[in-house]
Amino acid sequence: MTEHFRALVIDDSDGKPVAGFRDLTLADLPNHDVLVEVLFSTLNYKDGLAVSGKGRIARRLPMVAGVDLAGIVVESRNPDWKPDDKVVVNGWGMSETEWGGYTRFQRLKPEWLTRLPETFTLEESMAIGTAGYTAALAIEALEAWGKIKSDKREILVTGAAGGVGSVAISLLAARGYKVTASTGRPETLTYLSGLGATGFVDRAELAAKGGALQKERWVGAIDSVGSTTLANVLAQTFQSGAVAACGLAGGADLPATVMPHILRGVALLGINSVTAPHAERDRAWAILAESLDRQRLAAMTTIEPLSNLPQLAEDIVAGKIRGRVVVDVT
Ligand code: NDP
Q1: From atom 36 of ligand 1, which residue's Cα is the shortest distance away?
Q2: In sequence order, what are the residues at sequence separation of 6 or more whose Cβ sits closer than 8 angstroms to the Cβ of residue 238?
Q3: Tens digits of residue pLDDT in 39-75
Q4: Which residues make beta-bridge pairs with 298?
Q5: What is the CATH number of domain 130-270?
Q6: CA 208 centroid distance within chain
Q7: Whose CA is nearest to atom 43 of ligand 1?
Q8: Residue whose CA is closest, atom 30 of ligand 1?
Q9: Which CATH architecture has domain 5-116+300-328?
Q10: Where are the domain boundaries for CATH 3.90.180.10 in the chain?
Q11: What ipTM does the predicted assembly reach?
Q12: Cα-flanking dihedrals φ and ψ of residue 142, to 5°?
C-alpha cells in the first residue's frame, strides 16, 4: 500500500481557509472503522465553495475536502463491510465536519457507506455524485407528493446546465415528464435538448422580481437557484403542484409570499442530501438505476485529475461548469 498519498487539504492561513495539496499517510486519517481506497471523487457546487475559499464549508481544520467518494474497501473492523466491497459515500458531513474524498485513502464510519448499485461503475457513481443523487431525491419528493405523478404538464428545472439540473432533466425525461429547462447559457440549449428538455426559459426572466401569484405554468419544479427565481417559480406553479428546493446558486434568500401556498395549495419541498436517511438514499439510487440513461450520463460528464481541482472550484462557483465532473484521484 502506498505509504504517502496526495490529498487536497483545507487549512487555516492567517484566519482564512485555504486549500492546498499535502502528502498524508494512513496514520493521519481519522480512526474510523472502514479504510477505503478512493478511486474517484467529484465536483459539486459546495466543493467549489470549499476549495476556492468562497464559502466557509469546513467547520474544523485541517479538513480533507470532497463531499463524495467512490472506492474499494481495504480493511474493515465492522462486519457489514469486507475488503474488495465497492462503496459510495455522499455527504454525511464530509468536507464540513468529516474528512472527505479528495484523497487516495480515507477512513469512514460504516454507516456512511452505500453499496455501489450493480447498474453503475465506480466512475459512473461519481458522475452522479451528490448533485445527481440530490436530483433523484428531488424527484422522489415530487413523486411522493403524489399529485403530479403521471401529469403531462410541464416540470421546470432551474440551473439546468449545472450538475443537479442536468441529472434532473435526464431523469424526469426518462420517467415520461415534459421538462422545461431554465438556463442563463443559451449555448447549452443543444446539450439540454439532448438530455430530454423540450422547453426553455431564459433564467433572467425568472430572476426579475415578479408578483405574488402569476400565470400558472408548472405542475412541478426542481430548483437549484433559490432567491427571486424560487419565489417566481412558486408563484407560477399550478394548483396542487410542488416545488423541490435544492440549492442557492442564485442566493440563499427567499423573497416570497404565502399566496401560492394558501390560494393554490402549492407545496415547497425541502431537499437535504447530506444527512438523508438510508431509506431515502436507497430510493434515490433506485430511481437513478431505473431511469438514468448511461449514454446521457456520459454526455454530461468530463473527467479531471485531482491536480485541476483548484481551477475547477473557481469555475463551478462562477457558473462555468456544464454538467458533471468526475475527479480521478489515482
Ligand atoms: P452547478 O454549479 O453545477 O449548477 C448550478 C447552476 O445554477 C449553474 O450551472 C447555473 O445554471 C445556475 N446558476 C449559477 N449561478 C447562478 C445565478 N447567480 N443565478 C441564477 N442561476 C445561477 O451546481 P450543482 O448542480 O452542484 O448544485 C446546484 C445547487 O444545489 C447549489 O446551490 C448547491 O449548493 C445545491 N445543492 C444542494 C444539495 C442539497 O442537499 N440540498 C445537494 C447538492 C447541491 P445555468 O448555467 O443553466 O443557468
Answers
A1: 247
A2: 153, 216, 217, 218, 219, 264, 266
A3: 999 999 999 999 999 998 999 999 999 999 999 999 9
A4: none
A5: 3.40.50.720
A6: 26
A7: 131
A8: 247
A9: Alpha-Beta Complex (3.90)
A10: 5-116+300-328
A11: 0.99
A12: -65, -40
